[in-house]
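Hi support team,

I submitted a single chain yesterday and got back a structure, but I'm not sure I'm reading the token output correctly. Could someone confirm the output below corresponds to the sequence I sent? I've pasted both exactly as they appear in my results page.

Thanks,
R.
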Amino acid sequence: MADQNEQKNNQGAENAPEAEPAPKKSKRGIVLVVVLILAIAAGFYFWRSTFTEDTDDAQVDGDLYQVSARVAGQVVHVDVTDNQLVKAGDPIAEVDPKDFEVALAQANANLASAQADLEQARVNLPITHVNVRTSVSTSGSDVLGSQASLSQAQANVAAAQSRVDQAQANAVKAQLDVDRYTPLVAKDVISKQQFDAAVQQAAATKAALAEAERSVKAQQDQVSFAQQHVAQSQAQAQQSAQNAPGQVKAQQARIQAAIAEVAQAQAKVDQAQLNLGYTKIVAPISGIVSKKNVDVGENLSVGQDLLTVVPLDNLWVTANFKETQLKQMKVGQEVDLKVDALGGRKFKGELQQIGGATGSRLSLFPPENATGNYVKVVQRIPVRINFTNLEAENKDHALRPGMSVTPDVTVKQ
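Hi R., thanks for writing in. Yes, this is the structure output for that exact sequence:
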């Protein structure tokens, strides 16, 4: 038994040195496994990295509302301070309204005067219609009257002519009597008295003939006058008939002019009311007051900037991606947003727009590359990313424009 144990010990001693390489093989296997795992992880990470595109050149963006004065005047009250939260419609400042109240009263007075002129013009329109009709009717009556006078004058001429004929016949007869009595009186056939009576009768008939002829001439003058009056009355009637529509149109034009003056006066009243309302300056949107530059007693001019209101709801992200990252980017892709200032707090977004030009091209001084020492530089293009659930994720309104953001755009599903 002792010999056998000794023999086993000797064999164990001989085999002991040959067992040393076993731990080395085990270590190499572990290293290979680790390297393989790391290679697989790196490959998986690299493969997975092709699913997204990210950048650290991004920030929260939003509209900045510049509040300015719309009327000139002295500030009598300021209601806000820097970094104050305001809601849309909250008072910001007030300009002295007294001058604008006076202007409104003057505009109202001018409007009342214009309305009175319009009412007068409207009242005069039916009066003008009546006057025109009366003028036309009167001129027509004058024509008829003058024509009647002409007819009467012509009749008088005819009557006077008849009297002339009668007087002429009487004168001829009387002269014949004188001619017959002349030889008879010389022979004492008739008395001297009878002859003298015949001579006197002849003289009287001649005088009556002359009077009748003058009457004819007078009546003929009356006919000429009546003819002129007829022509004048006819001209007046024609003129009245022609002018009647024009007079009515002229009055209607006065009404239209008065209506225009009323509209103009009303516009001035509306403008005065607007200017009076502009004396109370209010917040155009809810947000934070920044860059306040107005104090009580300051005289404002139209368009002068007073402060800036930074909204906390209408926000988005502007990310400047390298041009090499845009190959697979499309509108509508999902984006994970991590905000640095909020301890990496994450938000959900959606790619909304890809900029129309690179940031360098849109800068104040765009680079000119037509030089001999040109070096190609990877450009960045602004990309707009909208928050998809901002109201729920930003209930505390912690986001502020300008905060740094790291966006991860999912370019593959």
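A quick pointer for reading it: The domain at 99-277 is CATH 1.10.287 (Helix Hairpins). Let us know if anything else looks off.

Best,
Support desk
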